[in-house]
Amino acid sequence: MSLVGEATKIAEELEYSPEQVRRGVKEFLRLTDDGLQNDGRDMTMIPTYVTSVPNGTEKGVYLAVDLGGTNFRVCSVVLNGDTTFTLTQSKVAIPKALMVSDSHSLFSFLAKQVADFVGIHHSDHFSEDPEHHLHLGFTFSFPVDQRAINKGYLIRWTKGFDIPDAIGKDVCALLQKEIDALGLPVKVAALVNDTVGTLMARSYTSPGKTGTLLGAIFGTGTNGAYVEKLDRITKMTSASANDVGEYDTSTGEMVVNTEWGSFDNALNVLPDSLYDRMLDQNSVNPGIQMFEKRVSGMFLGEILRNAILSMKEDTRLFATSTIAEDSVLNTPWSIDTSLLSYIEADLTEDYSVTKEQLQKDLGISASTISNDEAQAVKILVHAIGKRSARLSAVPIAAIVIATGKLSPPAETPTDGLNLKDLSFMEQGIEILRRAIGGRSPAAPPDDAPPPNIQDEEPIDIGVDGSVVEFYPGFEKYVREALRDVPELGEKGEKRIRMGVAKDGSGVGAALIALVAKMQY
Ligand code: ADP
């Protein structure tokens, strides 16, 4: 078989069919329910204690800090109250020695960065009066057991950090203690997960005032947080729920961090090709984060590497090129997913972009790559990227369905009336109708379509991450798969409005600090 024929065969193996999308959505809905009742084995469905999303009118000055992997970022956000904001930030690399020290050393270093920043940009806030203190949102990208909007106990360190005495401690309290020791006018108001930050940032900046439903990240990893009804989070609200901190119940909602990267670790419905199995076996955590391993930037390059290696073994792919033992192609985890984006974007007839990129990223001399070889790689790339996008539609569709956003509300409350008032009014109209022996003048004719003002309202989704932002056609393929879900179809898909929400850990964290401030 020709190289192109072989690559096409692999691409067919990687196809994620409409039927698979439907089964994926069904399984996602099952595991979502499970996670809302108990801490689901696959998806943890973590309540975030964030009980409302912004509508763009929020105002004020807030601080945000972000302790991710290598850097510590401090920023202040001025929310102008008209969906716009201004952000000032500083960034510093975390000294390696502090990553493996003790909690006082690390957190006093962080507090010192906050002190420097506030000293330069917000010296006007130095005041004895707590009313003037700055509220801070703390984005902390390590596993925590969150018990309140500003309280979370560190479960374990990841990403090269190892500070044993911090484990089991409330990281907000650790930071607050060091901030207080420096006499800073700053209150650590909220502990923030980056997906929740994405959701909040999008909700503040997106046009229309319906509020954003979902924040989703497709970057190094993938995860999503969405607005859920409190009474569906039974592990938190049922009489038998324990270890639940205080939260505001007035909105009847709470943002839930799904941790969907580990959707279907059991592989009940996820596709499992030879290339996925090769990746999982060589990973540091086999059998874990199985959805993420098929979708996000950290893994797509490695899937491609496996597919190329496998083709190379079975066919004459790159047989006339020199590929060193220690080349990128022979080194696990060394292909960056940006390579896939460049190749996908190649529209040249002679595959010159693909060849150049293979030379640049994989060190294979472009002049030794034939058109067939380049086309074969391009076919593999397209299949891997498209599958990632179609898989990404699964959680989006499931959450839109689960939250009832597709169906019209049973009743539409108007100003000053609650649902009880409306049902009382309806009873009144019915009594009146009977009394006058027919239809009340306001009632629609029987064949008129039911009023449905939510029908055309957009369902807003904020996304972030290099894969969704830069992979050519990613959103288009997500949308195609959304249309394959019967509950959505073309009509539902069209109602979904997707937009990039940049800076979840800046403006998003500031907005969560604002929500937290309102709760105190
Ligand atoms: P993070 O998720 O770590 O905050 P990003 O959203 O930038 O950061 O995601 C980084 C991931 O995206 C990496 O795995 C990288 O390989 C991948 N990536 C970087 N550039 C691109 C691109 N142009 N197209 C697709 N993926 C990319």
TrEMBL record:
Q: In which pathway does it act?
A: Carbohydrate degradation; glycolysis; D-glyceraldehyde 3-phosphate and glycerone phosphate from D-glucose: step 1/4
A single Gene Ontology CC term: mitochondrion
Q: Which parts of this chain are annotated as the region Disordered?
A: 437-458
- Could you list this entry's UniProt keywords, alphabetically sorted: ATP-binding, Glycolysis, Kinase, Nucleotide-binding, Transferase
> Compositional bias of type Pro residues: which residue ranges?
442-452
Q: What is its EC number?
A: 2.7.1.-
Chain ranges of the Hexokinase N-terminal domain: 7-204
Give one GO term, molecular function aspect.
Answer: D-glucose binding
BP-aspect Gene Ontology terms: glucose metabolic process; glycolytic process; intracellular glucose homeostasis
* Superkingdom in the source lineage: Eukaryota
Q: Which parts of the sequence belong to the Hexokinase C-terminal domain?
A: 214-515
Which family is annotated? Belongs to the hexokinase family.
What is the protein's name according to its record?
Phosphotransferase
